[in-house]
Amino acid sequence: MTPPQNEPAAQVGGGVISAPADSAEEYDPGIAAASPPASRPGSPALAPWEERFTSYDVEAFEVPRGREEQWRFTPLRRLHGLHDGSATADGELAVTVRSGFGDSASDELGGVRVETVERGDGRLGDGGIPSDRVAAQAWSSFPTATVITVAEPRSDDEPLTVQVEGPGVGKTAYAHLQIRLERHAEAVVVVDHRGSGTVAANTELVVADGAKLEIVEVHDWADDAVFVGAQHLSVGRDATIRYTSVTLGGDLVRLSPVVNYRATGGDVQLDGLYFADGGQHLEHRLLVDHSVPSCRSNVMYKGALQGAEGDTAAHTVWIGDVLIRKEAEATETYELNRNLLLTDNARADSVPNLEIETGEIVSAGHASATGRFDDEQLFYLMARGIPEEQARRLVVRGFFGEVIHKIRVPALRDRLEAAIEAELEVVGA
Question: Name one Pfam family in it (predicted).
């Protein structure tokens, strides 16, 4: 079963969506494996991911022109040359690792090893290989990489915070970060991106057998920042990754998580929260590659879009690709994307894709919906004496609450709730 990638765009109160306003599709494991996807005019079939090209060599990739499926939503002119080789590195990221989060953080890492390594370090690449030109450019251009290794279980009360500071206004930097959990290790990690500049980066999450990683990547960049990042998730036998992406700031942010299962029993949860203001472009492109039996994945991304009168349109893109290969029997997977349009000048493109090559699975499905406030919810709240402005805020809080409440760092939850309140102040919602 392979849904089409490009449904005709539909108008919803001034916003634009590329999937039906309320679409959901379930797969019956009792049905035989799907036949190869058929293409139709204006709607290319799902890419054959088993033939997905990967390389560390930037010159192995053609320069994107904007017509490629992988780049068709991205405004290339706003990448400042990251895609065509014209962006020269003239700055560096500042990376700081501490134990704890916020005011309680300290430099006592409690057995966690932090290393600065050269490109030739044999561990680099364990998470995955670049699959687009910008990721390959980042691999070819980073000066040194940061490798963080956790060898034993850490308490939930002691999260690791990785503070990443941009190179500065007008500067360009390339970076590489690898977080490794050894067998049966456990950790909660917050990667907090801030500052200005143009950045291309690869992040590797290498989780060994029986290990558990809960990681939150926060992109709270300054208004001028451009960040293009590839996240490579390597999941060992009976390992667990809970990955949450929070995207709030920046002029353009493009994130591309890829999940690779190395053995049976892997369990991955991908959650996302994004809030786009006028002029912002926030893009999330996911690939979950089920290549071994008896693994699970669940994806839930939620976004809100708004813009003040006179702003250029806020634009978000969510592409969710899930591939279940013929050898990946007993797979369980589901993906969900929801977008809330708060003003007329907002566009949300949402494209869930599911490709199944075997009928011997437990379950698989996807859903996508984009629209305005639920009038019934607003009416219910206003009928009980709550002013309309406050009612709208309550609806947005509830919309994002399911994602925020999963984060097990109280100070970070408080910060995100305050950031959403500040976003709503922009247009007086």
Answer: SUFBD_core
pLDDT beyond 50 at 321: yes
Residue 297 CA to residue 284 CA, distance in Å, equals: 17
Give this prediction's pTM.
0.87
319, β-bridge pairs = 285, 351
Sign, CA torsion 60/5/362/216:
positive
The pairing of strands 22-27 and 363-371 is antiparallel
Count how many residues are written for the chain: 429
Instruction: Give the E-state strand segments of 325-411 in sequence order.
Output: 332-341, 346-356, 363-371
Other Cβ atoms closer than 10 A to 321? 21
Q: Are 232 and 243 in contact (CB under 8 A)?
A: no
- In sequence order, which residues have a C-beta less than 8 Å from that of residue 309 and are 6 or more positions away? none
- Arithmetic mean of pLDDT over the chain: 86
pLDDT tens-digit series, residues 66-88: 999 999 999 999 999 999 999 99
Residue whose token pair is 């979950």: 288
Token pair of 396 as six digits? 């947005």
CB 200 within 8 A of CB 134: yes
CA dihedral 111, 112, 115, 119 (to 10 degrees): 130
CA–CA distance, 385 with 398 (Å, rounded to integer): 18
> What's the Rg (C-alpha) of the chain?
21
- Which residues are within 8 A (CB) of 221 and not within 5 positions of it... i.e. 6 or more apart? 166, 193, 194, 195, 196, 227, 249, 250, 251, 253
Q: Three-state SS string across 219-281, please?
A: ECCCCCCEEEEEEEEEECCCCEEEEEEEECCCCEEEEEEEEEECCCCCEEEEEEEEEECCCCE
SS (H, E, C) 327-346: CCCCCEEEEEEEEEECCCCE
- One-letter amino acid identity for 324? I
Q: How far apart are CA 73 and CA 77, in angstroms?
A: 12
